[in-house]
Specification:
CATH topology of the largest domain: Rossmann fold
Helix content: 40-55%
Radius of gyration: 21 Å
CATH superfamily of the largest domain: Glycogen Phosphorylase B
CATH architecture of the largest domain: 3-Layer(aba) Sandwich
Distance between the termini: 17 Å
Shape: globular
């Protein structure tokens, strides 16, 4: 028997855990463990908050050990708990972003402090110790094999899903008076928002895009760095202060209105483990432009325009094309809706259940 740990919170990895919990008929425990983890990035090692977290962590580990069943940890930052489990566990790895920051390849998010280095190294040791790993894309699977040396047979790829009952063209687009392009995500370095801002500034030099706005949905990022401050520096240097609209966090049920009203959705990230907004945009009939890096081409399946994330001119040209060429728009919308239809949480749950059964069989075989 496998027990799924369903984490509460508003981050994409919490959404993954919640959607699996809704679609899987297995025992579940609900926890805010990942919310605590995310809140403590960049906290000093010997601070009061860090000390309190150790006590909370031990309580959580004891609770999991008492279950006496195989446990599914729904994201890689729970690997730190896996190391202390007496029971076998399955872990989902969404990406290796913090690992790359730990190794000094970035920063993709933020250079980790002493406490983060300690805990992140525990996370990846915990990933290596897992009985089975679920990767959310082939790209993440390749990263796990290449960077962590994990054998291929230990990794199962199960794509994330899109909720087709919610993400569909909406008759109630978000209430903006002007045409807009849409960006959804944080302002961490890996999201590459400055390149989009520079490409947007190029378009604004042309009279036909006088009224065009850039709508940025989502929080700036965690408390570990002044992500918004850096974004505003770029915006002010490009004289775009009046042209960019920040909405902050938008509840999931309101997102279809934002996608449906947008001229296009843009995700120019240099690194994504999956890139869920790409699927959501496609399901809502919104043309998509992505970077040609990491998992994004794999997830988009040829149904989006791909650009080099460092190429400002190329991104500006892609935006111009999608906003003005009706035939191109129609092709992208049709191809996008077909591609999005291939991903569902029901399918993700079925494939996850198959992994559970394989692990149960493997363990029972070993015990006999």
């Amino acid at each position: 028997m496998v027990t799924l740990v369903a984490t509460s919170g508003i981050k994409s990895m919490d959404l993954y855990a919640r959607k699996l919990a809704e679609n899987l008929d297995v025992p579940k425990v609900y926890s805010d463990c990942y919310q605590r983890v995310a809140k403590l990035f960049n906290t000093p090692l010997f601070s009061q908050a860090a000390m309190k977290a150790i006590w909370e962590d031990w309580r959580f580990i004891r609770m999991l050990n008492r279950l006496g069943s195989i446990v599914h940890l729904p994201n890689h930052h729970l690997g730190r708990y896996g190391l202390f489990l007496k029971v076998p566990y399955i872990i989902t790895v969404h990406d290796l972003i913090r690992y790359f920051d730990l190794k000094g390849y970035g920063p993709f998010i933020h250079r980790p402090n002493l406490r983060d280095r300690l805990y992140l190294s525990l996370d990846y040791k915990g990933v290596k110790r897992a009985t089975r790993i679920i990767a959310v894309s082939q790209y993440t699977k390749r990263d796990l094999m290449h960077h962590l040396g994990i054998p291929e047979e230990q990794i199962s790829v199960v794509y994330e899903g899109v909720d087709d009952s919610l993400f569909r063209p909406s008759p109630y687009p978000a209430g903006f008076d002007q045409p807009y392009i849409l960006f959804i995500g944080s302002e961490q370095p890996r999201k590459n928002l400055p390149t989009l801002l520079r490409a947007f500034a190029k378009l604004k030099e042309e009279r036909q895009f006088n009224d065009l706005k850039l709508v940025k949905v989502g929080k700036a990022g965690g408390a570990e760095a002044d992500f918004r401050g850096r974004t505003m520096e770029v915006i002010n240097s490009l004289h775009l202060a009046e042209e960019v609209i920040f909405t902050g966090f938008v509840p999931e049920e309101e997102l279809p209105g934002y996608y449906s009203g947008a001229g296009c959705f843009v995700l120019p990230s240099v690194y994504e483990g999956f890139g869920l907004p790409v699927m959501e945009a496609m399901a809502c009939g919104c043309p998509v432009i992505i970077s040609n890096r990491s998992s994004l081409p794999e997830i988009a399946g040829g149904a989006a325009i791909e650009v080099d994330p460092c190429d400002v001119e190329g991104l500006a040209a892609a935006l111009r094309g999608v906003l003005t060429d009706q035939a191109l728009r129609k092709n992208l919308i049709d191809a996008g809706r077909q591609q999005a239809a291939r991903f569902s949480w029901r399918k993700a749950a079925e494939q996850t259940l198959k992994v559970y059964r394989e692990v149960e069989e493997h363990i029972s075989h070993r015990q006999h």
